[in-house]
């Protein structure tokens, strides 16, 4: 099962808002339908968003060709709207750009570029899993946040790719999935994926992680990323920063697993990463039921930025980038991600 795919000139996604209770696919024919799906997180996660960006441009080009309309104009309009759907994950803009670069070749070339990006994503995730497992060695108990698994990519995933590879090499005794308030990607999606893979796991509330880490219950933390600035500062799902602070205090590795496409050379530091602010109701309600008193307000940043100094390393499909805490793990001096 792929989180996102291309079939009969439509984009097919697993509707992640229904998981884990129902596995339903949506076939999306128009870019506007895909944009709605991105906004409501039916398709989500940095790498899946990259593929969605490219496939959204491909949808626009193919529909325009079918209707006898201007393919270039349709692709350019869709590209603008797709890139505005969510602001933080750099992969979305990258995917849109990759597809647009094929536009001079016409609609078929754009589809070809989107499919190539899909296939490259699967290969990248496999390589990231191996590189991450090489770096971490043989931890028995790992903790991950949000969902950086197959559902956040096309197949395999980044952080969960590392977890799966670790487990294949030497069985993990436990994987802790933080529930990830407010939309519960950890409790709903990561727990589902770990269950499917037969990897031992427990869901914990986000606030339990620091106590588990400082209590010696966790050997390593591995997370994905939505944007990595040139200096290594990393945006990921809100709550990631707290786990990084606890990991630094406890002296355990904090690994970021992400493809090269997540590194944004044009974003110098974390201060330049736009953080998506989502609807207050996501915090004030659970499963559609209001839990906060009438009149209570919320702030709902969807991501936070972990400074490079708290990160052991970023592993991509091509390289391992030692960051601020690398010296603890390897004895080497810290380096910037772009170097
Ligand atoms: O809001 P989401 O669910 O799209 O956020 C996803 C995350 O924060 C993931 O950890 C990140 O995209 C990495 S996925 C490989």
UniProtKB/TrEMBL annotation:
Its EC number is 5.3.1.23. Belongs to the EIF-2B alpha/beta/delta subunits family. MtnA subfamily. Catalyzes the interconversion of methylthioribose-1-phosphate (MTR-1-P) into methylthioribulose-1-phosphate (MTRu-1-P). Substrate binds at residues 44-46, 86, 185, 236-237. It catalyses: 5-(methylsulfanyl)-alpha-D-ribose 1-phosphate = 5-(methylsulfanyl)-D-ribulose 1-phosphate. It holds the Pfam family IF-2B. Pathway: Amino-acid biosynthesis; L-methionine biosynthesis via salvage pathway; L-methionine from S-methyl-5-thio-alpha-D-ribose 1-phosphate: step 1/6. The record marks 146 as: Transition state stabilizer. HAMAP family: Salvage_MtnA (MF_01678). The keyword Isomerase applies. InterPro entries: IF-2B-related, IF-M1Pi, IF_2B-like_C, Initiation_fac_2B_a/b/d, M1Pi_N, NagB/RpiA_transferase-like. Keywords: Amino-acid biosynthesis, Isomerase, Methionine biosynthesis. The lineage of its organism: Bacteria, Bacillati, Actinomycetota, Actinomycetes, Micromonosporales. It comes from Paractinoplanes deccanensis. This is Methylthioribose-1-phosphate isomerase. It comes from the Bacteria. The active site is at residue 226. GO terms for molecular function: isomerase activity.
């Amino acid at each position: 099962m792929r989180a996102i795919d291309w079939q009969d000139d439509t984009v097919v996604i697993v509707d992640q808002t229904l998981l884990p209770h129902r596995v339903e696919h949506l076939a999306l024919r128009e870019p506007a339908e895909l944009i709605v799906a991105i906004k409501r997180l039916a398709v989500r996660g940095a790498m899946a968003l990259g593929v969605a960006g490219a496939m959204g441009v491909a949808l626009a080009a193919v529909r325009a060709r079918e209707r006898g309309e201007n393919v270039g104009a349709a692709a350019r309009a869709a590209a603008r709207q797709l890139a505005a759907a969510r602001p933080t994950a750099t992969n979305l803009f990258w995917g849109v750009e990759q597809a647009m670069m094929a536009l001079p070749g016409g609609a078929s070339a754009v589809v070809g570029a989107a499919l190539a990006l899909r296939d490259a994503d699967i290969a990248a995730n496999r390589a990231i899993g191996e590189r991450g497992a090489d770096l971490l060695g043989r931890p028995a108990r790992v903790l991950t946040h949000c969902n950086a698994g197959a559902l956040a990519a096309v197949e395999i995933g980044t952080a969960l790719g590392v977890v799966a590879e670790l487990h294949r090499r030497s069985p993990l005794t436990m994987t802790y999935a933080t529930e990830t308030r407010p939309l519960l990607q950890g409790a709903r999606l990561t727990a589902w994926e770990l269950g499917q893979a037969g990897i031992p796991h427990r869901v914990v509330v986000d606030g339990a992680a620091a106590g588990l880490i400082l209590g010696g219950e966790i050997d390593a933390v591995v997370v994905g990323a939505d944007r990595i600035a040139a200096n290594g500062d990393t945006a990921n799902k809100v709550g990631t920063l707290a786990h990084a602070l606890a990991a630094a205090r406890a002296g355990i590795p904090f690994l970021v697993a992400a493809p090269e496409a997540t590194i944004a050379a044009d974003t110098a530091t974390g201060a330049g990463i736009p953080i998506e602010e989502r609807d207050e109701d996501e915090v004030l309600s659970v499963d559609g039921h209001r839990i906060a008193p009438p009149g209570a307000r919320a702030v709902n940043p969807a991501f936070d930025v972990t400074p490079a100094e708290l990160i052991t390393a970023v592993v991509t499909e091509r390289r391992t980038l030692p960051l601020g805490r690398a010296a603890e793990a390897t004895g080497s001096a810290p380096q910037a991600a772009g170097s």
